[in-house]
């Protein structure tokens, strides 16, 4: 009798033709990676030879071939009928007795290893599956919580039938696979009791941008099928590879999902399905599914797997709620970014006059699309979706695949970055907004909408047709100037994407943007939370920080994770973090802020910048900022972060700030820490030599320096026209501070729009030999062009002077 069973312990990646992509990968990890600490549940495969034995024993080969030949390959109008006919042929067929006996014997042998009753995950593993060029993800079926001889055999037969799901037939046609040359192996794997804990998926790169220095993990409570199917909005974690390898605190960010439902074993043995979804209790929704230690443990396993396969990987994990151990239950090559050539064309989008926002969700694809919304309940309604319309539905699964390519964009109520809709959108290069919660309620069938995914991790759906501009730049032969070009940033959501464009780091990271958008709370309202007098603000702050007993830690974690994300994206390039520079009226607008801020006649030149840091009104808030920066530099190991002090009026004030930072554990020089100062007040220029003795470098804040040199309020509509960085007085100030910094041997850069808006201003800065110029992302490419022109002109003049030196005039 021919053997049709292969244990995972006897399987490697070389056995793909025999056991399929999924099972060969499981065997490879089980045999080679368990010794390195990666835990993989044991199991066995029913080989592809068994599939052909099953097919031929029931004389199905000709019947299936002739049925598949009737498929309409132009419009696929009869796809459902052909798929149903093929599946019925398989489901009515008998598994030969000798094959049945081998399956049951292997199942019982596996069960004998345990001291308890075991359940199996029975999964299809096609021989053209989990390849580097075609994942076949979700094309065949999986069956969970399977136990008992008859249930196991029934699941095996259903796996064979699932080779002919409508979606699998269409997928094979699209990818050029011969239906009758693709066999199916079945994997029978001991189930991890994640129904009592959690499960999820992850990638060894950022699935949205392809940034490959991070591990991305996502998951939810209960069995992992909800995550794979995109039925829940999951928890998300990013871990930085370089510092993880160094043993540092490598978690860059943690995002809490609502995890609305949990998939469990069905205790009702008479039910048609062995699994069931229940509502997740409220307290569990507010709890992360993994501890920090578990996140880092999984991330380290992901690195081991990626190193072993030598390619980016898409990995499924599960936690057992009985033994509390973590397991890897699947690993396959990542098939989107790993197949793309290095991007040489950069398309930038900008929306003009944004319409009303209808809903928001997770952005997939850095594009914009508009069209007629088609709200559909089921793939059976596929004929209603016309080419170029926008698909709106609750959730997608592989049954939607045949029609999703028609859509200009995809919008779903449920799902996250690893949901089916997100994966398909990336594969076909479409734009999608997933996990909106309410899109099917908010969007009306037949109305015109615009889908925008160009504004970070949040995708927006706008009412009507928006107008936007597109600019495409070829980066193939782009030359970088000698002057460092750096970003002005404050949004961690865009960091991975921007880091892959031409740049020399971040010259100005604005903490205010992060505090305003990610934290939303005045630092002192967290320090003195129990003494807050605004009941409504206190309630809202409590909800935002519900995962934290220590309210101060909420601020430190959020700020360190946001700054850490940006620092990691650009690592090891410099990232210069400016400590908070809100004005009092802006601070007052934060939750709980009014209680701690004075009312000022002119906040622009009032209680802001350095003067706050050592003042009793804010000193404890500054402590939290320093705590967060200490976490980023010392615990996360992101020593590319430099710090910068804004609006420092006097040298003595600068010394005070350096002293208090030292008190809070940020000692200048330790671990290479450099502290810069903004040169934005005339006193900074006039006494630059003295400031240079206190600080490690300068960054010219051209906006404030211009208004304080010219004595005007740049926010005033009456005198705004006088605001001009090219004004001779302003340029004299800039020239003076650059020369003094150079004389003192200190680095000096500038932040502002001037060098991108004006070739003349860029030329002026280059001529003075400024070290770096920082731009907002939308101005970066134009700024590079201006700097290159200025440098070329400077070199041309220098070359001419070298050939024809200026004659000396004799002195009488």
According to DSSP, the number of beta strands is 30
Largest sheet: 8 strands, parallel, barrel
Structural class: alpha/beta
Whole-number tally of structural domains: 4
Spatial sequence of strands, sheet with the most strands: 23-24-25-26-27-28-29-30
What is the second-level CATH architecture of the largest domain?
Alpha-Beta Barrel
Indicate the CATH class of the largest domain. Answer: Alpha Beta
Categorize the overall geometry: elongated
- Under CATH, the topology of the largest domain can be stated as TIM Barrel
Low-confidence stretches: 129-138
In terms of DSSP E residues, the strand content is 15-25%
How is this structure best summarized?
The chain is of the alpha/beta class and 812 residues long.
Protein described:
The chain has an eight-stranded parallel β-barrel, surrounded by eight helices. A seven-stranded mixed beta barrel has the order 15-19-18-17-16-20-21. Strands 9-8-7-6-12-13 form a six-stranded antiparallel sheet. The protein is elongated. Mean pLDDT is 91; it is low at 129-138. A hairpin with a 6-residue loop joins β12 (313-319) and β13 (326-333). It folds into four domains: 5-191, ATP-grasp fold, A domain (Dna Ligase, domain 1, 2-Layer Sandwich), CATH 3.30.1490; 195-339, ATP-grasp fold, B domain (D-amino Acid Aminotransferase, Chain A, domain 1); 345-474, Phosphohistidine domain (Glucose Oxidase, domain 1, 3-Layer(bba) Sandwich), CATH 3.50.30.10; 484-801, TIM Barrel (Alpha-Beta Barrel). The chain has 812 residues and is an alpha/beta fold. It contains 30 helices and 30 strands.
């Amino acid at each position: 009798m021919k053997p049709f069973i292969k244990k995972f312990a006897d399987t490697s990646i070389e056995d793909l033709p025999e056991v399929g992509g999924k099972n060969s990968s499981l065997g490879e990890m089980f045999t080679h990676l368990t010794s390195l600490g990666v835990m993989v549940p044991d199991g066995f495969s029913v080989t592809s030879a068994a599939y052909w034995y099953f097919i031929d024993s029931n004389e199905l080969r000709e019947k299936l071939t002739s049925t598949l030949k009737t498929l309409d390959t132009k419009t696929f109008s009869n796809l459902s009928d052909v798929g149903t006919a093929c599946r019925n042929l398989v489901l009515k067929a008998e598994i030969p007795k000798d094959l049945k006996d081998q399956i049951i014997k292997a199942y019982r042998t596996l069960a004998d290893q345990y001291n308890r009753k075991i359940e199996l995950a029975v999964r299809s593993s096609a021989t053209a599956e989990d390849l580097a060029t075609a994942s076949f993800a979700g094309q065949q079926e999986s069956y969970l919580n399977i136990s008992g001889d008859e249930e196991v055999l029934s699941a095996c037969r259903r796996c064979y039938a699932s080779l002919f799901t409508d979606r699998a037939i269409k997928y094979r046609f699209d990818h050029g696979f011969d239906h009758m040359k693709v066999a199916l192996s079945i994997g029978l794997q001991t189930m991890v009791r994640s129904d009592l804990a959690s499960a999820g998926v992850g990638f060894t790169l950022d699935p949205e941008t392809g940034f490959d220095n991070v591990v991305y993990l996502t998951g939810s409570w209960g069995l992992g099928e909800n995550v794979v199917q995109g039925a829940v909005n999951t928890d998300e974690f990013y871990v930085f590879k370089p510092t993880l390898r160094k043993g540092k605190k490598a978690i860059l960010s943690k995002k809490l999902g609502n995890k609305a439902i949990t998939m469990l074993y069905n205790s009702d043995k008479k039910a048609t399905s062995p699994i069931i979804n229940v509502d997740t209790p409220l307290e569990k929704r507010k709890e992360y599914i993994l501890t920090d230690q578990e996140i880092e443990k999984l991330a380290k396993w992901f690195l081991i797997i990626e190193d072993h396969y030598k390619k980016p990987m898409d990995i499924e994990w599960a936690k057992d709620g009985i033994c509390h151990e973590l397991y890897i239950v699947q690993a396959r090559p990542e098939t989107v970014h790993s197949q793309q050539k290095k991007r040489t064309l950069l398309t930038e989008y900008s929306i003009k006059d944004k319409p009303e926002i209808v809903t928001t969700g997770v952005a997939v694809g850095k594009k914009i699309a508009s069209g007629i919304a088609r709200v559909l309940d089921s793939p059976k309604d596929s004929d209603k979706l016309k080419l170029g319309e926008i698909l709106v539905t609750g959730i997608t699964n592989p049954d939607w695949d045949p029609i999703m390519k028609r859509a200009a964009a995809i919008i779903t109520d449920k799902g996250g970055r690893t949901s089916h809709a997100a994966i398909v959108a990336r594969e076909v290069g479409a734009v999608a907004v997933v996990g909106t919660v309410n899109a099917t309620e908010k969007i009306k069938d037949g109305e015109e909408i615009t889908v925008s995914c160009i504004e970070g991790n949040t995708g927006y759906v706008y009412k009507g047709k928006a107008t936007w501009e597109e600019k495409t730049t070829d980066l193939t032969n782009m030359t970088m100037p000698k002057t460092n070009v750096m970003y002005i940033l404050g949004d961690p959501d865009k960091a991975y994407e921007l880091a892959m464009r031409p740049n020399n780091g971040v010259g100005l990271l604005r903490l205010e943007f992060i505090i305003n958008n990610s934290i939303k709370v005045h630092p002192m309202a967290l320090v003195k939370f129990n003494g807050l007098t605004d009941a409504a603000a206190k309630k809202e702050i409590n909800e935002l920080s519900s995962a934290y007993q220590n309210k101060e830690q909420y601020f430190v974690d959020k700020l360190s994770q946001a700054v850490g994300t940006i620092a990691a994206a650009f690592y090891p390039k410099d990232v210069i973090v400016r400590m908070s520079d809100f004005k009092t009226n802006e601070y007052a607008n934060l939750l709980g802020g009014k209680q701690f801020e004075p009312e000022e006649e002119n906040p622009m030149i009032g209680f802001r910048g350095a003067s706050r840091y050592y003042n009793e009104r804010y000193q404890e808030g500054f402590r939290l900022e320093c705590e967060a920066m200490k976490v980023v530099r010392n615990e996360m190991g992101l020593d590319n972060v430099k710090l910068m002090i804004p609006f420092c009026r006097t040298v003595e004030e600068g010394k005070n700030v350096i002293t208090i930072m030292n008190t809070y554990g940020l000692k200048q020089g330790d671990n290479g820490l450099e502290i810069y100062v903004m040169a934005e007040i005339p006193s900074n220029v006039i006494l630059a030599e003295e400031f240079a003795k206190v600080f490690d470098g300068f960054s010219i804040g051209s906006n404030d320096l211009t208004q304080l040199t010219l004595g005007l309020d740049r926010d005033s509509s009456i005198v705004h026209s006088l605001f001009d960085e090219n004004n001779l007085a302003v340029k004299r100030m800039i020239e003076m501070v650059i020369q003094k910094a150079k004389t003192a041997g200190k680095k000096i850069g500038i932040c502002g729009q001037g060098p991108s808006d004006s070739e003349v201003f860029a030329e002026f800065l280059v001529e003075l030999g400024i070290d770096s110029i920082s731009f907002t992302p939308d101005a970066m490419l134009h700024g590079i062009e201006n700097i290159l022109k200025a440098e070329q002109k400077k070199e041309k003049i220098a070359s001419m002077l070298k050939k024809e030196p200026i004659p000396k005039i004799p002195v009488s």
